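WP5 quarterly update. Target: DeoR/GlpR transcriptional regulator. Source organism: Caproicibacter fermentans. Length: 278 aa.
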Amino acid sequence: MLSVTRKQKIKDLILEKKSATVSELAKLFSVTDETIRRDLRSLESEGVLLRSYGGAFVQTGVENLIDYSIRSTVYLKEKGIIAEKCRSLIQNGDVVFLDHSTTTFAIAKAVEDMRLTLITNSLPIINLLSKKENIRLIGIGGFFSLKELAFYGSKAQKALNEYYVDKSFFSCRTLSIDQGVTDSNDDLAQIRKTILQRSKECYLVADYTKFNQASFITICGYDCLSAIITDRPLSQEWHTSLQKYGCRIYDAAPEQAGPADGVNKKSDAKNDNQPKCR
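Structure tokens (predicted):
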């Protein structure tokens, strides 16, 4: 197969599937991994895709399902910044939920020395924390997604409904001022919707690449959130728009409030231990 033909087929495949690994592309086209990496570098220079360690992906499309293995290798610095802020909001003794996102995996690494009860549907987080005696670890069952390395479905939702947590941290595919918090996977979005109803404080964690876009499924509006935690300053429009919902923004801006001010005013005023979102 000619190089130009192979590159076009790779482009079409990734635009359709939204992501692909080097190994699967090499097997599909019967060429070496290095040949595929060269093709991906060329396609990245053309602005077709973004390369990651071991693969490539695109961020367009409302139903964009990128493999966990690819997502876990990108924007690591940004996820680390978010994770450190989240740690400052968590106290020893808290009951915490972390969802199946790669950003919450960074949070799990940041809090692995704390004394917590931690609930999750993420297999990587379960594996990371399984030998930590200081963490009371609860994994929810259900169907298993090999693409997301996460548990989901009615059994997982039923398990979540057995618990109530101090703080939940979850991510999303995209978020915008007008469309709210959105996702690409309906099944796993339901897990996020369920935990919103089972949390005293709800924190959305999202790096800068997820803003000002919309995806397939609505998770919630901003009235459901205690705060959004991201890695770069957001526009004044974001701050003004979310203020009316009582949703705080931690965005690494110079005027950012300290950890003691971590809960928004709406959450501070609410002492009945009831979730914000119903």
